[in-house]
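Subject: design request, 419 residues
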């Protein structure tokens, strides 16, 4: 407790809370179609492949929105960008409430829900911007725990859809967005670490470096796996185990709650033991539990427990990865995080489509799980090879923060640090 009080005193707690709440509500909106997928699929009699694609559309659209919103935040401030984004989300939800009544319009609504998925880089940079380097992993973990919005979506959207119809949920969600908007307006303060107005090349610098692509591939597994599974699980539980639509949401909630809670722990473990060490354990756990989920398809209890372990690992991995980002890009954390988030989150679209195609062509979801497990194993090998250079240049052994963060690499730009 004393350590946590010291942590809070080192930064600005109200801004961190506002960032968490903002990310929590926007994340819930982002996965709304996934939470209601059994209702939507039944309305339009969708095939397994169509279900997977419908669930993936908001994920892909959200990934593509992350960098533009991160860029906007550098020019108008993170607090202002968050308020603008939430206003656009309310308008999108009102469109869903009043106008969506066909499969093609559901896909269009999925694109609009992607606006909510763009909040990631803003929320983490806003929440951690007041805190010193030694606490940024924990601060980002707390702000990033807003991915618990998945829990809100899968817990409340199915019973509301059953009671009032799934399009009505869009209207209810629009009203709930007023809460994080008010909290952001009155409680948040723009952090003092405002980043310079750089050129587009400078904003995308991390993707001209091997490190940027390495971080993005790790994020494909940790966050792509989290958002992809969280969006597809209601459909998986409903189709695989023939539970009710509401029960499918409740079972998904049990799994995703683990990932949301453990994200904070992942940031703390990254600070203490190093992000590379933490991620190594995460990637091994993800690969094992995903294959286990595919093989345990006949047991509801066993599958649920394995999903809980898998989400715990994914959540810890998300926190640990973003413990490393401010160490590698200390002067452009928000933009680097948004770009890594954009590329990495695109991986979330892979998993629902892989699951749907596996079911449609092989009459089993197993090969969708196996494909993502193999990807996790390949990323682990890549990271262990890359970390040999990381610990010689910008991090301590295992990925811990150095006593003095080396800013020079970030100041010189991508060409000087490319390797």
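Subject: RE: design request

Done. Sequence follows.
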């Amino acid at each position: 407790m004393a350590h946590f009080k010291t942590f809070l005193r080192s930064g600005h707690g109200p801004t961190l809370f506002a960032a968490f709440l903002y990310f929590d509500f926007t994340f819930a909106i982002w996965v709304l179609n996934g939470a209601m997928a059994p209702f939507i699929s039944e309305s339009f009699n969708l095939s397994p492949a169509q279900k997977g694609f419908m669930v993936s559309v908001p994920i892909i659209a959200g990934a593509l929105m992350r960098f533009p919103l991160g860029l906007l935040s550098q020019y108008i401030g993170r607090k202002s960008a968050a308020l603008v984004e939430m206003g656009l989300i309310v308008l999108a939800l009102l469109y869903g409430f009043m106008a969506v009544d066909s499969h093609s319009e559901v896909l269009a609504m999925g694109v609009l829900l992607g606006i909510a998925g763009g909040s990631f880089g803003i929320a983490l940079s806003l929440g951690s911007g007041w805190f010193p380097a030694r606490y940024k992993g924990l601060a980002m973990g707390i702000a990033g725990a807003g991915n618990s919005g998945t829990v809100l979506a899968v817990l409340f959207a199915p019973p509301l859809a059953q009671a009032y119809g799934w399009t009505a949920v869009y209207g209810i969600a629009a009203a709930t967005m007023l809460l994080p908007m008010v909290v952001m307006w009155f409680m948040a303060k723009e952090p003092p670490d405002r980043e310079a107005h750089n050129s587009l090349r400078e904003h995308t610098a991390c993707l001209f470096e091997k490190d940027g692509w390495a971080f993005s591939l790790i994020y494909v597994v940790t966050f792509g796996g989290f958002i992809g599974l969280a969006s597809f699980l209601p459909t998986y539980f409903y189709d695989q185990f023939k539970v009710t639509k509401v029960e499918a949401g409740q079972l998904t909630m049990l799994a995703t709650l683990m990932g949301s809670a453990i994200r904070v722990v992942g940031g703390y473990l990254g600070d203490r033991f190093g992000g590379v060490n933490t991620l190594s354990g995460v990637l091994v756990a993800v690969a094992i539990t995903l294959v286990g989920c595919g093989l345990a398809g006949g047991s509801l209890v066993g599958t649920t427990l394995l999903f809980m372990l898998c989400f715990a690992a994914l959540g810890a991995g998300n926190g640990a990865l973003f413990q490393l980002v401010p160490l590698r890009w200390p002067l452009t954390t928000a933009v680097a995080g948004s770009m890594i988030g954009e590329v990495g989150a695109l991986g979330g679209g892979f998993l629902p489509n892989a699951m749907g195609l596996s079911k449609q062509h092989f009459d089993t979801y197993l090969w969708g799980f196996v494909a993502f497990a193999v990807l996790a194993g390949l990323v682990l090998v890549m990271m262990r090879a890359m970390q040999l250079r990381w610990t010689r240049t910008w991090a301590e052994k295992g990925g811990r923060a150095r006593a003095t963060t080396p800013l020079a690499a970030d100041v010189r730009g991508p060409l000087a640090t490319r390797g």
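Residues 14-188+203-417 form a domain with the Growth Hormone; Chain: A; fold (CATH 1.20.1250.20).
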